Amino acid sequence: MSIPLADPEPLAAGTLRVTPIGGLGEIGRNMTTFEFDGKILIVDCGVLFPEEHQPGVDLILPDFEPIRDRLDDVVGIVLTHGHEDHIGAVPYLLRLKKDIPVIGSGLTLALVEAKLKEHRIKAFTMTVTEGQKEKVGPFDLEFVAVNHSIPDALAVAIRTPAGLVLATGDFKMDQLPLDGRLTDLRAFSRLGEEGVDLFLVDSTNADVPGFTPLERAIGPVLDQVIAKAPRRVIVASFASHVHRVQQVLDAAAAHGRRVALLGRSMVRNMTIAEELGYLTVPDGLLIDYKKARDLPDDRIVYMSTGSQGEPMAVLSRMANLDHAIEPGRATPSSWPPASSPATRTPSTG
Question: Is 266 found in the same domain as 189?
């Protein structure tokens, strides 16, 4: 039995109200609202993917009900990075009011705009970079570089007369990131000296002792596995994990294998990442999965979605024999290396 909640009291003058709409105590549908002087700023707007005990569910959205009747007061949506659990619900919120400004880094907005295009929504966007300051309604925003498994992630400092809030978004302390972009601890220190009144930290497994392995440490492992595998290799990751995909592409190219991208979101995101210069694809490396089926098994790597076991993602469908990828053939080959000309058109899986 659910207990009805009373409407929140009107805010006293000079008070900042922070409301987690989703993402608190769960990995997914991240969304937080900040209300000051009658105006609302949203930070992130993501989805949660269903589990096996939720058949028929495609996506789980944040509960927009607390702001549904106040969308005219929303001055902007700040997106910290481009993972689905932080941007995936943006089209569904903009269906309710299409002219809410969307603010984020170049790659983040490119990924969002591709999603919005599928929903036939043209958004008002503002591209920001680390160190940039913007005033949005009564909120003074400052953006700080953070390292994550997707490029171009940003923390946001939110200043109001009520105080200073620092929302990190997802981040990690990788001291040797693949793209050389570190979490800006100097900026964090400077903000700390100024006086942070509320520190909202979002880092998966932050309560686990020890350090996150360096992203660079994964490269040699992938290289070794792909080098020794006698048959096909299937690698699963987030569809927006640009750094991991780059490592797989590099390892495949080094060992004369072609790469087929599987999953509509994987193809879309990697195409955007390549166009913006975040992903380097050697000529002739990518191949459509339908043509990849004609290659010997020891000359192909499939890059797939579904690393978290999502029931509708490509990896789960392959495991359930519900995908076009068929059982492989163990025939070794002297097929030409990946530097030979080939089709660059990836598959939507």
Answer: no
